UniProtKB/TrEMBL annotation:
Taxonomic lineage of the native organism: Bacteria, Bacillati, Actinomycetota, Actinomycetes, Pseudonocardiales
PROSITE patterns attached to this UniProt entry: TYR_RECOMBINASE (PS51898)
Protein name: Tyrosine-type recombinase/integrase
Domain Tyr recombinase, chain residue ranges per copy: 142-332
UniProt KW keywords: DNA recombination, DNA-binding
InterPro entries reported in the protein's UniProt record: DNA_brk_join_enz, Integrase-like_cat_sf, Integrase_catalytic, Integrase_recombinase_N, Tyrosine_recombinase_XerCD
Database matches in Gene3D superfamilies: 1.10.150.130, Intergrase catalytic core (1.10.443.10)
Family: Belongs to the 'phage' integrase family.
Length: 342
């Protein structure tokens, strides 16, 4: 009975369709012969500036050079034209032409960032209904497996050598030693230090407000000594209350180039720094390793400013998250100075 009803309904629907086509003066063959209208898909040269203007400054800084390379290779092609195989070919082209550095790993980082830059483009294209999710070719190209980091904690005597060389060489030892102490005490990233403003200083509680990658932010305890040096630096170099704190002697804000010049100079005075490719991020490893060994994983995780993820381990840490007072105790022990919150 159900089958008869279904057949009858199908017959009625077919007859209705035929009647409608007759009234419109069309034949079924006309529907097959006429191509369906296609969406207007922009080229890479047209779409990359749109996405670049929609993302954060950090994302634009990370992917900008790779979007430029994509535009050079595929600028006049539409987003829906490249295949996963062509993306793999582009990845190999980028890897084979990457600048060779002593700490390079065969262009793995360049390949990873290129794929991430493409995925960012296509993710926006999906949101704009320019392509279907199943037609996203960047999803079908795996990123190269990330190798373990070669960075590690710096030994105390080596850290003393770094600080001594920074304090006795260069054209602005006061600035360089302040940068090193800021990163050693807080384990902050470069972005956190460069984003620091005079208004982010809380001298009463010895806290600074760090704004780092991924739009994360946290209140980080520091020693009274570092707080005094930061305040004096801002005052002497005329840093606006809502402007960048770290500045050159003439008042111009520093950039990442100051870090590059600092470690290049330290490498000339300390050959092992150049050999091991020591950078400011090694100080983050050094401090967090010490905090974890002496105060446990929960305090080290909060000290680092790490946020929750979707893993089971991270879910557990939501119940054992350290407080700012516990971080202040770690700072007091690290600097051998009392802290108001400890």
């Amino acid at each position: 009975m159900t089958s008869d009803t279904t057949d009858t309904a199908s017959t009625v629907e077919l007859e209705a369709a035929r009647l409608l086509l007759d009234r419109m003066g069309l034949r079924p063959e006309d529907l097959l012969a006429t191509p369906r209208p296609t969406r207007s898909v922009p080229t890479f040269a047209e779409y990359i500036p749109i996405v670049s203007g929609a993302v954060s400054t950090g994302t634009r800084r990370a992917y900008g050079s790779y979007w430029t390379r994509i535009q050079q290779q595929w600028g006049e092609r539409r987003l829906d034209e490249p295949t996963p195989t062509e993306i793999k070919q582009l990845v190999q082209h980028i890897r084979s032409n990457v600048v060779i550095r002593r700490n390079g790993r065969g262009g793995r980082s360049a390949a990873e960032h290129l794929i991430a830059a493409l995925r960012c483009l296509y993710r926006h294209a999906e949101d704009d209904n320019l392509i279907e999710p199943n037609d996203n070719p960047a999803k079908k190209v795996p990123k190269p497996r990330r190798l373990p980091s070669t960075r590690r904690a710096v030994a105390d005597n080596r850290l003393d050598e770094i600080n001594h060389a920074a304090a006795t060489t260069g054209n602005d030892p006061e600035l360089d030693t302040l940068i090193l102490r800021l990163h050693t005490e807080t384990a902050c990233r470069r972005g956190g230090a460069l984003n620091l403003r005079p208004q982010d200083l809380d001298p009463t509680q010895c806290l600074i407000y760090l704004r780092e990658k991924g739009e994360t932010a946290r209140r980080q305890p520091i020693s009274p000594t570092l707080m005094r040096h930061l305040q004096r630096h801002a005052e002497q170099r005329h840093a606006p209350r809502d402007g960048q704190l770290l500045r050159y002697a003439r008042g111009k804000p520093i950039t990442t180039r100051r870090y590059d010049h600092l470690w290049e100079r330290l490498g000339k005075h300390l050959p092992w720094v150049a050999t091991q490719q020591i950078s400011i991020h090694w100080l983050r490893h050094t401090t967090l390793t010490w905090v974890e060994r002496n105060f446990g994983f929960a305090v080290a995780r909060t000290y680092a400013g790490h946020t929750d993820s979707t893993t089971d381990a991270a879910t557990t840490t939501t119940y054992v998250r350290a407080t700012v007072e516990e971080v202040a105790k770690a700072v007091a022990a690290l600097t051998n100075e009392p802290h108001p919150l400890a």
